[in-house]
Amino acid sequence: MAPTVPSVKLNNGKEMPLVGFGLWKVNNDTCADQVYNAIKTGYRLFDGACDYGNEVESGQGVKRAIDEGLVKREDLFIVSKLWNSFHDKERVKPILKKQLADWGLEYFDLYIIHFPISLKYIDPSVRYPPGFFDENDKLSPGKASLEDTYHAMEECYEEGLMKSFGISNYVGALLLDVERYAKHLPQTLQIEHHPYLVQQDLVDLAKSRGIAVTAYSSFGPSSFLELKMQKAHDTPLLLEHETIKSIADKHSKTPAQVLLRWSTQRDIAVIPKSNNPERLAQNLDVCSFDLSKEDIETISGMDKDLRFNSPPNYGIDVPIYA
């Protein structure tokens, strides 16, 4: 029996599950099976993106589950993201429709501006997903303003191609700027969020505007080890940290469950992934116990303002958090 996953009510009245399955770094050859198995386990939110390069396979897993009667389309909450190369206002709807076709869907439940970065357009027939570099392997800025991109997103939202829309990797100043020009405030803000990077002021700002927050990389450096990021290798792993382990032992839970509960108990959605069936089920079951106020304060007190998912950490000269 799959655990009951609570949801958060978005500012447009839609409901978003607090726990989902993140598709970043899910290999193409296993992706369809992982999505299908996650649905069987009880996951209903799937967080994808153009840049992950596995949207076709993700859609195959969804289709299999629907065809077998495990779920209906309306039971699922499918998330995707607009990549930097498609920020020009005339490019937003065409790439959104391509991504929907890749998934085999008529709409996304949530579509997000992936980064507040405009890059030169790369035709999907040339390279897809394009990544940060152009066809000459150079970093070429685009000319779209964040406001123009946002208004193009609003048009697609009003057209019904997405049921909700959001922003990701925005800092407080950009979120305040959105307020100046938005016809519709975003429903969600997705950010790197773990005990080494709490970003409490940004979380509070978003919530004060009725914008739900989703955390990615909830396990901190563990998410970046396979990317051979030196900063991740130099940082004590949260899953092995004595503070996290002692709290986990107290509650008879895993360190991963404690890290995820630290977020969900504060009404922050999480999108972990796992290939392991047991951990897959454990990660979903993170709302059936409560941490104490002291537990939450202790974990939050581990904050180091330590960010891993910043372009310069990948050798990309776009210091958006400078």
From TrEMBL:
Involved pathway(s): Carbohydrate metabolism; D-xylose degradation
Source superkingdom: Eukaryota
Keyword set, alphabetical order: Carbohydrate metabolism, NAD, Oxidoreductase, Xylose metabolism
EC number: 1.1.1.307
GO biological process, one term: D-xylose catabolic process
This protein's record includes keyword tRNA processing: no
CDD domains: AKR_AKR2D1
Active-site residues, as the UniProt record annotates them: 52 (proton donor)
Molecular function (Gene Ontology), one example: D-xylose reductase (NADPH) activity
Residue ranges occupied by any NADP-dependent oxidoreductase domain in the UniProt entry: 20-302
Top-tier EC class: oxidoreductase
UniProt site (Lowers pKa of active site Tyr): 81
Pfam families: Aldo_ket_red
Residues where substrate binds: 114
Sequence similarity: Belongs to the aldo/keto reductase family.
Protein name: D-xylose reductase
Gene this chain is encoded by: xyl1
